[in-house]
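Escalation from tier 1.

The customer reports that the assembly of four entities below gives different structure tokens on two consecutive runs. Tier 1 could not reproduce it. I'm attaching the input and our single run for tier 2 to review.
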Amino acid sequence: MLELAVLGLLHETSMHGYELRKRLTQLLGAFRAAFSYGSLYPTLKRLKDSGYIAEDAGDPNEPVPPLTGKRGRIVYKLTAEGKERFADLLAQAGPETYEDSGFGVHFAFFSRLDQAQRLRILEGRRRRIEERREGLRETLTRSVERLDAYSLELQRHGLDACEREVRWLNELIASEQSGRPPSVTTVGGFVPPEPQAPSVHEPSEDPDAHRE
Amino acid sequence: MLELAVLGLLHETSMHGYELRKRLTQLLGAFRAAFSYGSLYPTLKRLKDSGYIAEDAGDPNEPVPPLTGKRGRIVYKLTAEGKERFADLLAQAGPETYEDSGFGVHFAFFSRLDQAQRLRILEGRRRRIEERREGLRETLTRSVERLDAYSLELQRHGLDACEREVRWLNELIASEQSGRPPSVTTVGGFVPPEPQAPSVHEPSEDPDAHRE
DNA sequence: CGACGGATGTATCGGTCTGATACATCGCAC
DNA sequence: GTGCGATGTATCAGACCGATACATCCGTCG
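Tier 1 run:
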């Protein structure tokens, strides 16, 4: 997972470890806490040994900006093999792709996938969340007696979060299917009317209508 | 974390590993995926070696229910030291107590803490989520240009989730402060009117009014 | 009847990630 | 000029995951 994230970030710009972590934290802050240096630096070393990234000996026109002497920062750049590797990792969707952390990383680089791949991942994620949701519903209906008030409240909050995410995913999937770029300002569940030919049959209003 | 969760579950009933994992998944399904056997069984061994749990040689009145022969299930029970250990772990709130997984486990056993401890943990969690929320807000206002539409959507969804959780925590905190048990049926953000003396000043309607 | 799959049950292993820690430099404020 | 926070690289012990192995029990289907 970290590997994919690092390659993805270096795809945009060359960076050193410290900055990588900051960008990582910012980019994935929504879905996972943050990757720590304890995994970042070993990963960088591994990627370098594999030839996916290489030390970037600094642009001559930017002579080591603030840092000057000694063992300063180490800037990494993506190699051609690295780009290939990134594309492979991003496209091949293993089961962990739909887990919280994995999904966040994939989603962050969605613009590098085509529509079909995006749809596949979104639907896989939705399936995963729906399973979690069903589990919670079952717990809430079947074992109300066996759990104390706090546990129940926890289940309820989890269920609510699942339902929200499924709705979010449904909007994204509808967006993709209508060929439209991701939400312009879908803050309150409001989708702005876009000027577009009514191509297919539009899954209507029901946010839960899709198989099952 | 797993240690605390296992001790907490065995506090209620003696169980074997397989069932422990099922209960674990159910109880914490809302906040974390699940603990795997790869960490559960080593933890059980460690807890047993430490004397916090012990093999329960089966009730004589229930002579190994379905399983009969060979090396069947191993039922564990909590020892006196285990109960102490559980109380310690549950009460001492380290920084990881406010992380997703840690908070879920603590919350699940809230009924074994007193009101003051519950409030401390809820407020700590709220602080953590507020920090995450502020980070997301900053990203969304400051670096809109630098991120593509999908990354922005990810941030927005994360921000929404944070805001919801803060609101949830505020309700729980208000509940605790008014000495009332956790929500009876607070499904849609609706708090049923409860027959109770208007003890303190009731923080009114604003879900975000609390310091800051 | 036997064969097969799925739930139950215990257990280990390699690998990933975390949290703590160490250490060194830079720039700034007091 | 001295401390202090941000920048920067790096390692280590330990927690946890995913896969795998293996064995039993039970129901179903040919």
